[in-house]
Amino acid sequence: MRKIIYVSGTSIIRESIVGIAICLSATLLHAQAAQDGSYTEGRTAYNAQQYSKAVSLLAKANIEHPDKTDALLYEGKALAHLARLPEAERALTKYLQLHPDSIEALEALGAVLQRENKPTDSLKTFTRAAQLRTPSSADLNFVALDYVLLNDYTDAIHWLQKAVAFDANNGQAWYDLGRCYYTQSRFPDAESAFERAQTLMSGDVRVPENLALTLDAENRPSAADRQYRKAVELARKNHTSGEWPYLNYGTFLLNQDRAAEAVPQLESAIAANSKCAECHAMLGRALAATGKITEGVHELEQAVTLAPNDPKAHYQLGRLYRQAGEQAQAKEQFTLSAKLYGSKSQSGHIQ
Predict the structure, then answer these.
(1) Which residues form the domain of 343?
(2) Comparing C-alpha atoms, which of 245, 319, 231, 225 is closest to residue 281?
(3) What is the mean pLDDT of residues 221-228?
(4) How far apart (Å, rounded) are the C-alpha atoms in residues 54 and 42?
(5) pLDDT of 1-36, one tens digit each?
(6) CB 153 within 8 A of CB 159
(7) Residue 112 counted as domain residue
(8) What's the number of domains the chain is made of?
(9) Residue 186 has pLDDT above 80, yes or no
């Protein structure tokens, strides 16, 4: 695949007459918008975050007055908010065919393409936007995430470093930079980035959670424990719906031979996501470590039901069956685990 080179500093100098024409065009669009009830109502709904209503009204406005307003642009943006990504892509692409120099549409389309896991197309779109104006720190952050999707962490880190250089208060960019460093096992760099993000996004549960993972990787369990607890406290305070703060802390406690403390954290993880196979597997291990073999078997049985192709879960269930004296069932699970490990190794998933 040919690498897309993102142009970060390019801007096009326009003749003053073009600028005047754009201003006049915008004035005409706003005048039309004022006369168009569907458009006005649609924009009002969009601004109120009533995106389903906005889509309906803006689509109607565009039919009534095609290409007389920016209804199609905001219809596409509303569809993106609703995660109706293919429809959003179509609307924004159509708008750009009519208004190829719309920076707002280019940036919205680039973000949609990124969410659709189309990083190459997203990069091309962001590059077009960069040719029209110097990108912001937030723009460079989006570009970096495209390189993450391309598994190109070198370029991702490059653009994130530029993003934080442009705006040292861009907490999201510091967080994403920490994630990239962590993925590359650059733990001291990751720690510094997450600490900077924490000063800027003190209420974001992801930051202490990932800082804890980094400290754990650096074999600093006491410091990691403090950050894991902070993440869990934030998750409870903010009613965070995901299982990860509890699962990560529970796993950490289990690995520290603190199984009794791990159990309530892993139970909270399952309460947050009952379909999480790993949560059930880790809780099964923790329960077994506290002497509750039967309960542990039950949790691991749920884990293999939810993730039947996970060889590790089958192996762990086999061990618990053996502890429970169920030798035939243990043998069956060990055989299945070995078979799954073999198939994954042949497909290149496990070295």
Answers:
(1) 269-351
(2) 319
(3) 98
(4) 4
(5) 334 334 443 333 233 333 433 343 444 444 454 445
(6) no
(7) yes
(8) 2
(9) yes
